[in-house]
Specification:
The protein is of the alpha/beta class. It has helices spanning about 25-30, 45-60, 75-85, 100-110, 190-210, 215-235, 240-265, 265-280, 285-305, 310-325, 330-345, 365-370, 385-395, and strands spanning about 10-15, 35-40, 60-65, 90-95, 135-140, 155-160, 165-170, 175-180.
Length: about 400
């Protein structure tokens, strides 16, 4: 029997090489005045940027544009809302990595209202319910990692000793359209391919073993993980199959966004929040640096305290899939899963946490701040000492 499930809203998805050319028509169908949010460098330096601007002019659209160069903060969102609140903006277009899309998503949600995003952030401030409406939002990713084009949450950060990484989350924030054009990923450097790829892989893995997983999300995660297996290393290392790998990872990242929005994540993302807020650890690096050890600790804890958990069988299935060895028994497949994650992390030169100044003395504060929403759907409750062990192994 299939247990009752609920699937939250998704954008209309347009996927494939050249899909960026559809964006001007989509914008025209929604209004005449656009706020374009991009990253600071690669897209604006490409021919794609000028082509987009020329197409908007031909269609009689007007626009404002702004740049997001780092992980977005509440103050960046609030400032944008103040600047563009009375500029007649009818649509928000985000073109960039996860940080750009999260910023654009939050700005689209608040432009009709003018209040601070701090009013709505989970776990910070008054947590007032968001009532909407949001402006129509079109998301165009230029990296393959966060899947933000398919989610209802905008992740915002404040860095430093009192820092946090929290979500502004609501179904009304989901993009009207997600336009995924693998050609836009062609300029990604290897370190970005690695960190974003490990983020997408982690999101698929954690969605699959989430306590809220269901047959719908399971099918998507397994499909995405197959494309990660076939594409990530080919894209990272270049060569004849790099373009195929790039397209496969764009698809896998999209699926990872869909599944995390439906069923949540796990301990890796629970740790990524304080790692990114309290220290200068990029989100994808936090995932890549910890996913192998967190998976191994989860498996050990399940073996010891919940050997009947369906997550153990699922970990084995992922091990067989990623390793391409269908004959492995469950225990052996789980060993191969952890080994594969460690091998890929090393092969793509994902930095250890110590590269960002994290030391043994910092672990307690990270553990104390890791119990956000992602930890609630981890397949087993981890004790503080188990979480500390994950971090210690990753230094």
């Amino acid at each position: 029997m299939i247990s009752p499930l609920a699937i939250s809203g998704l954008p209309k998805i347009l996927f494939g090489e050249g899909r960026l050319s559809d964006v001007p028509e989509l914008l025209q169908s929604l209004g005449k005045r656009v706020l374009i949010v991009t990253g600071g460098r690669s897209f604006r330096a490409s021919l794609h940027w000028q082509g987009l601007i020329d197409a908007l002019k031909r269609r009689g659209l007007s626009w404002e544009d702004m740049v997001v160069e780092q992980e977005p903060s509440p103050s960046l969102v609030d400032q944008a809302v103040r600047v563009y609140r009375h500029a007649g903006i009818e649509i928000v277009l985000g073109i960039g990595g996860g940080s750009v899309l999260d910023a654009a998503k939050a700005i689209a949600g608040l432009l009709p209202h003018g209040n601070s995003v701090m009013d709505h952030l989970e776990g910070v401030g008054p947590e007032l319910p968001y009532q909407g409406p949001s402006l129509p939002f079109i998301a165009v990713p230029t990296t393959a990692g966060t899947g933000s084009e398919a989610t209802k949450n905008a992740v915002l950060s404040m860095h430093g000793p009192d820092g946090f990484k929290k979500s502004f989350r609501h179904d009304l924030l989901v993009a009207k359209y997600a336009v995924v054009d693998p050609a836009l990923l062609a300029t990604c450097p290897p370190d970005l391919i690695a960190s974003n790829g490990m983020d997408a892989l982690t999101q698929l893995l954690e969605s699959y073993v989430s306590t809220r997983a269901n047959p719908f999300t399971d099918a998507l995660t397994l499909s995405g993980l197959g494309y990660v297996r076939e594409g990530l290393l080919d894209w990272y290392e270049g060569g004849e199959k790099a373009a195929e790998g790039r397209a496969g990872m764009a698809y896998a990242a999209l699926l990872s966004g869909i599944t995390l929005a439906q069923v949540g994540l796990g301990s890796v993302h629970g740790l990524a929040a304080p790692l990114g807020a309290l220290f200068p650890v990029p989100h994808g690096v936090a995932c890549g640096a910890t996913v192998a050890e967190a998976t191994e600790i989860n498996i050990r804890a399940l073996d010891e305290r919940d050997p009947g958990s369906p997550a153990l069988e699922k970990y084995a299935k992922i091990g067989r899939l990623l390793r391409g060895k269908a004959h492995l028994d469950d225990a052996g497949a789980r060993v191969f899963l952890v080994h594969t994650l460690k091998e890929w992390t090393a092969r793509m030169k994902v930095p250890a946490l110590s590269a960002y100044g994290i030391r043994e003395a910092d672990l307690d504060v990270i553990v104390a701040n890791c119990r956000g929403s992602s930890m609630k759907t981890n397949p087993i409750d981890l004790a503080d000492e188990e979480v500390r062990e994950i971090l210690r192994r990753c230094l």
